[in-house]
Design goal:
single chain, mainly alpha, Helix Hairpins, 12 helices, 0% strand
């Protein structure tokens, strides 16, 4: 099969990437691994790449972000190629769809509506347009359209946000804190008296309410947990560094010593913030 010169044209842009994917998926001359993939097998990679984009942004690693954005773009190309093979859609139809959606959802930019509105009003307008779109898709339920494939914590946040729009919400954060105390007590009871299945259920209830507390406090729980993960990694690595300075590793240490070093690392971080 003669090679398409487009594949080696570094200035060809998106059309080059589309042709590369088409070639990889060619049933006769493509890559065996790529040929075997389908939407279900590629979806986990798509989610992973989105998180790697978020990680690069959090670290402000702009060269890394460039590469991760390319990896994420490749996922879109992969799905559109498979969609075209199956006759569902094409790259061009996907581009047309999102372009039409952006124009329709920004009448204050591309239409006749006034731009003289706050960001909060624009958000309300955006949600109203999305609600009308769901009606057009026969999604009548309040919670319809909240993607099942979202990370569970993020989906909990979005489900609660959607329910709050129709008044199903606690009046204040204090009410949520009271509910957290109630759910914590139920988790302890389940641990002491009930089955492991009951423990899992009560633990899930507690996490669900924690996500709601984040919404009441203006905190996106998925982002907050990523930040907490990063902080834990940073501080634990600090503990490892201090152990290595005395010729030890975590395996050679104990909880008491590592906890003391954790406090040292934590204090050093706070002192650095104060100095800055």
């Amino acid at each position: 099969m003669p090679e398409n010169p487009l594949i080696h044209d570094q200035d060809a842009g998106i059309e080059r990437l589309i042709e590369i994917m088409r070639r990889l998926r060619d049933p006769k001359t493509g890559c065996p691994w790529d040929i075997e993939q389908d939407f279900d097998t590629i979806a986990p990679y798509t989610i992973e790449e989105a998180y790697e984009v978020a990680d690069a942004i959090a670290r402000k690693d702009w060269p890394e972000l460039e590469g991760e954005l390319g990896d994420l773009l490749l996922q879109s190309i992969y799905h559109t190629q498979m969609g075209e093979e199956a006759g569902h859609f094409s790259f061009q139809s996907v581009v047309r769809n999102i372009s039409d959606k952006m124009v329709a959802r920004h009448p204050h930019v591309f239409g006749t509506e006034s731009r003289d509105k706050s960001a909060e009003q624009q958000t309300r307008d955006w949600e109203a347009i999305k609600a009308a779109e769901r009606v057009g898709k026969a999604q009548q339920g309040t919670l319809d359209g909240v993607a099942v494939g979202l990370p569970a914590l993020l989906r909990a946040y979005k489900l609660q946000k959607r329910a709050a729009r129709v008044g199903f919400d606690w009046p204040s954060a204090q009410n949520v804190l009271d509910k957290i105390s109630e759910e914590s007590a139920e988790l302890v009871e389940a641990r002491d008296e009930l089955t492991q299945d009951a423990v899992e259920e009560e633990f899930g209830d507690l996490m669900f309410v924690m996500a709601n507390l984040g919404r009441h406090l203006g905190v996106e729980p998925e982002a907050a947990l990523r930040r907490a993960n990063a902080k834990f990694i940073r501080r634990f690595e600090g503990v490892e560094t201090r152990l290595s300075e005395i010729g030890k590793s975590p395996a050679d240490s104990n909880l008491e010593e590592m906890d003391a070093l954790w406090d040292v690392v934590k204090a050093a971080e706070r002192a650095a913030l104060t100095d800055n």
